[in-house]
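The material for today's practical consists of a large collection of protein records. There is nothing in a record beyond a sequence line and a structure line. Backbone structure tokens are a discrete shorthand for how the chain folds in space. Nothing more is needed to start thinking about how sequence determines fold. As an example, a complete record with its sequence and its structure tokens follows.
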Amino acid sequence: MDGQKIPGKVFFIGIAGIAILLLIISTYFGVDAGERGVVLRFGEVNRVVEPGPNFKIPLAEDVVYMSVRVQKTTTKTEAASRDLQVVQTTMVLNYNLEPSKAGSMYSNIGLNYNERVIDPAVKESFKAAAARYTAEELISKREALKTEVRNYLRDRLKGFGVIVVELSITDFEFSQEFNKAIESKQTAEQNALRAKRDLDRIRVEAEQKIASARAEAEALRLQRQVISPELIQLRQIEAQIKAIEKWDGKLPNVTGGTVPFIQVDKQK
């Protein structure tokens, strides 16, 4: 009988030892870098622990891990511009949780803070900012719009323990009617620019012609000023000398008439 009781006691002791060992092991937990451990005692937030090895009360405490690394969320939304044009956009927000407020974030909002806090804030901020710009300004002043939305989000999310790192506006989509109007305006501007270039070219060519005509008229005027009787007589003498140089010494073979001769005036 005693021999049968001993193995039974050993079995129960072994079971109890394993249970105690598991209980001791369950008191230990580790938190990775870039995370915070929110320790819950009977379901209530008790404390927030830093990365590294930590301990908790078995059966009474649980741990929820929350990332404090930079995260990204993409939000699609739409709004009305100041001139009542509907615009759709995609916004990408980079953010991280403030480590010291991880406990209050979990206690007040939970783990789905992206859907409950961040996305609605992004939509609200874009609608508020877009109403200050016309549809064309949303395109031409995108950087100013992004800055305004980002600053609004920083103020809006700071109270929840969310730090805004950067915001990007990746796309704008307008109605077909607005796109056609923009295309027509761009075509008109291009045609106006082309017409202006043609007018400038014609004006330059006309000015060049006027300048050329003025130069030619001035040259003729100067030529008239330098012509004198002595110059005319000199030109006649030069012409006669050239004729003599070309003569071969033979008189023309003609019947009747006078013999032509070349008269050379004596220079005085």
